[in-house]
Design brief:
The structure is a single chain. With 456 residues, the protein is of the alpha+beta class. The protein folds into 3 domains: 215 residues, no CATH class; 74 residues; 150 residues, Heat Shock Protein 90 (2-Layer Sandwich). The chain is 66% helix and 10% strand. The protein contains 15 helices and 8 strands. Helix 1 runs antiparallel to helix 2, helix 2 runs antiparallel to helix 3 and helix 5 runs antiparallel to helix 6. The radius of gyration is 30 Å and the shape is elongated. It holds the Pfam family HATPase_c. InterPro entries: HATPase_C_sf (IPR036890), HATPase_dom (IPR003594), His_kinase_dom (IPR005467), Sig_transdc_His_kin-like_C (IPR004358). This is histidine kinase.
Length: 456
């Protein structure tokens, strides 16, 4: 049980620290903590209180341990169904008015309050009155399970994270429902000792999900911080390098112009040709420096209300000459407007779509869609190209990383698009498998963009 206590408290801390403003994460973290306190009560009962007594601890210390055990046990029994139903409501995305969203937690807390006030107090045999608690705890858990299981998830990268949540959360909670409430109400006590294995399985799913598809957006947050740090380093480093190269290229151009005039005056044709080559090289250096600088400098947004579908269509229209035999399929939900930097978003879409076109070569299909979730507008760009293996997929947002060998590709298109999305408080994620194509998801938060649906 000590493992269960440590594992669940660690999960609660990860959920709370990853995104403190998320009601879903806060409530799921509270659910994990409730399970952890139950494990703590079991550890206190099985060993810690006995060790304290054998070590000659004072009566007050032993009483404090007993009270901690009582509180932990009762908090766990009442907290698991309560926090689970609250998590399920938030995760399902049930639309509630402000007054209802404030009142709902209080209404759902009523059975807990009534049980605390009007049922017998804690004892080690009957920590709660099982045959009463079961009548509200089980419905809470079953209703919450239905909310989570039948949540409508669009076919994006979030679909996989949804199933990670289902497999990590639902089996342990349903198992605990039988062991902690149903069977004890039938007289089969202390069945909670069998919870260790199922909670351990849920922990394994949580950890695996965290480092593969993500869990409640946490993996995205880890990647986001890493890429933000890399972009800041690249921005400051290239700014200094660009400045130095630009100054030297300017000096080179000035002296070459002077040499060109001298060569022309003295009619030295060979020298004149050499100087022209030097001037061309200096101009090329300045052009390359300017291009790198534009892609690595910090972006300043110029926000205006714009239709996301229209911006995507304009960007795709400009790429039509590059499509060749590639089929373009669009399914853009019209009417959604938001405060965005039209030019920057268009450039980000162009970079991603152009990468997809180059990856497919002469043939394939490019699918672009704009869908909505409760909190986000998701622009999906999918190709039928060769796809990427895991190692390549993990590096696509790294500045200057590129698989292209032409002299005009710096590996800055995707980092730039990522930076644009971060500036809009959104996210850019990728899903790809070798041989199965690649999909990019540009997720714009409705709240930040002040998004509105035309005609509503």
């Amino acid at each position: 049980m000590l493992f269960v206590f440590i594992a669940l408290c660690t999960i609660a801390a990860i959920l709370w620290l990853s995104e403190p403003g998320s009601a879903v994460n806060r409530r799921l973290g509270a659910l994990a903590l409730s399970g952890g306190t139950g494990a703590l009560a079991a550890v206190l009962d099985a060993s810690w209180r006995s060790y304290a007594a054998e070590a000659g601890a004072s009566e007050s210390a032993q009483l404090a341990l007993y009270k901690l055990q009582a509180f932990s046990s009762v908090f766990s029994y009442y907290g698991i169904p309560y926090f689970f139903i609250l998590f399920a409501v938030a995760y399902r995305g049930v639309r509630l008015s402000r007054s209802v969203s404030i009142a709902l937690p209080l209404v759902l807390l009523l059975p807990v309050i009534l049980c605390v006030l009007f049922t017998p107090s804690y004892n080690e045999t009957y920590p709660i009155t099982f045959d009463i608690v079961v009548w509200w705890a089980v419905p809470y858990i079953l209703l919450g399970t239905a909310f989570v299981l039948f949540k409508k998830v669009p076919p994006t990268i979030y679909a996989r994270t949804h199933w990670v949540v289902c497999f990590a959360v639902l089996p342990p909670v349903l198992f605990v429902m039988f062991m902690n409430y149903v069977l004890p109400s039938m007289g089969m006590l202390r069945m909670w000792v069998y919870n260790t294995w199922i909670v351990g399985l849920g922990t394994i799913v949580f950890v695996l999900g965290l480092f593969t598809y993500g869990f409640m957006g946490i993996r995205i947050l880890i990647d986001r911080k890493r890429f933000d740090f890399t972009l800041r380093a690249v921005t400051s480093g290239t700014a200094m390098l660009n400045h130095a190269i630009k100054n030297d290229a300017g000096k080179l151009r000035l002296f070459a112009e002077k040499m060109k005039r001298y060569a022309a005056e003295t009619k030295q044709e060979e020298l004149l040709a050499d100087v022209e080559a030097v001037l061309a090289a200096s101009r090329h250096m300045e052009e390359m420096v300017a291009r790198v600088h534009r892609r690595t400098e910090d972006i300043t947004l110029r926000l205006e209300r714009a239709d996301l579908a229209a911006v995507a269509e304009e960007a795709l229209h400009a790429l039509k000459p590059s499509l060749g035999s590639i089929a373009l399929h669009t399914n853009l939900s019209r009417g959604w407007t938001g405060m965005i930097d039209r030019a920057q978003v268009s450039e980000a879409v162009t970079n991603i779509a152009n990468n997809a076109i180059e990856a497919m070569g002469k043939e394939g299909s490019l699918f672009v869609s704009l869908t909505e979730t409760k909190r986000e507008l998701v622009l999906e760009i999918r190709d039928t190209g060769p796809g990427m293996d895991r190692s390549l997929r993990m590096q696509v947002f790294e500045p200057f990383y590129t698989t292209k060998r032409t002299g005009h590709n710096f590996g800055l298109g995707l980092p730039y698009a990522y930076h644009v999305m971060r500036k809009h408080k959104g996210s850019l994620t990728v899903r790809s498998k070798q041989g199965e194509g690649t999909t990019f998801y540009l997720a714009f938060p409705k709240k930040t963009l002040l998004a509105e649906r035309g005609g509503e």
